[in-house]
Amino acid sequence: MTGPEAGAATLPTHAISTGDGRSFECGSTDTLLRAALRAGVAATYECNSGGCGTCKFTLTSGEMHQLDPDAAGLTPRDKRKGKMLACQSVPLTDCEVALQAGDAWFADQSTPGVRSGRVTRVRHLTHDLREMTLTAPGAAEFLPGQFAMLTVPGAPIHRGSPDGAPRGLERAYSMSNLPNDDGQWQFQIKRVPGGAVSGIVVDDLDIGDEVLIDGPYGHAHLKDSGRDIVVVAGGSGLAPMVSVVRGLAERADAVDRRIDFYYGGRTPVDMCAIEFVDEVRDRVARVELVEAVSMDDADDGWTGPRGFIHALIDHDTVDGLADRDIYIAGPPMMTDAVVRKLVLELGVSTDNIHYDRFF
Ligand SMILES: Cc1cc2nc3c(=O)[nH]c(=O)nc-3n(C[C@H](O)[C@H](O)[C@H](O)COP(=O)(O)OP(=O)(O)OC[C@H]3O[C@@H](n4cnc5c(N)ncnc54)[C@H](O)[C@@H]3O)c2cc1C
Ligand code: FES
Fold this sequence. Notes:
Residues 112-223 form the FAD-binding FR-type domain. By secondary structure, the chain is of the alpha/beta class.
């Protein structure tokens, strides 16, 4: 494999004004959301992938192209009201938009940028989960728990390129390592059956292949609160939780901190969190791992807990749960079930819960 498809050579840039006095430029290869973030406008978002609906906005004047007109983040009602998703919108003219955005840029975050990386290391963690390290020029600046948008060679051409230039589909993947000066970006990517991009990463990418990295993005990063933490990962959600745990273990107060690591998979062959827990064991006060399989197969040899991971989290199983920071990553159904249980049944404050749903 070689590199991702290149975009067109010279493409126009359009002026965007937000109607509240803010303005920025958006190129034809960028989305409204990303251009806003690159310009320091703290636009509201979560997944950057069209799934969550957090980045909805109204177009007041001008024309926008929709990368994925069927994106799940917009309901039929939203569409009737003329709402659009900033993460799926590319301006075709100068535009005025009513965009939800905070007053100040997220103080602790790096501005997202695009860089080209090469695959420098790969290893299989399980039958369908592969760790991939990319090396790119400059420092890898991100916060533990954040993600990047990757374009990999061989990805299907994006059906919605507004300028007709061939451009590969991008997907969001979370970094599993820590920020570093060596330009190393590490990911753990799970093959989704029939998936357009994940299968290429797990089965086809080779050392030396070129991958475009656009990031960092995401708000569910390790906070500086001084609290003990709980991390909950399901399936493909392992990477950001590994990064959060590694980040905590690096801190000066790590020796006083406790980590409870919950990992849910379908079958015993999906289990692989132990090496990441062992890695930090001698640097934190205490780390516990609870792994559960959701498939009910009496012949699979599993002697640990069975069922959905949210069922195992309780005040009895995590001491001081209400005073911990809780990080969650994985499929939306799992994430929503954990959040519901924490808030509605266990009385945990939403301020202590930080999550990314993997649409
Ligand atoms: C913020 C964020 C961070 C993410 N981080 C990671 C990560 O670190 N590692 C990782 O492996 N993935 C991660 N993902 C998921 C990833 O972006 C892709 O959605 C996933 O790899 C599937 O892409 P695909 O092109 O192979 O499948 P698609 O062609 O997009 O989808 C094929 C089918 O699979 C379903 N599907 C999509 N994603 C999933 C999923 N995660 N689990 C089950 N079914 C799914 C779709 O609904 C569709 O029906 C993250 C997603 C988000 C939004
Ligand atoms: S951030 Fe746009 S739909 Fe999730």
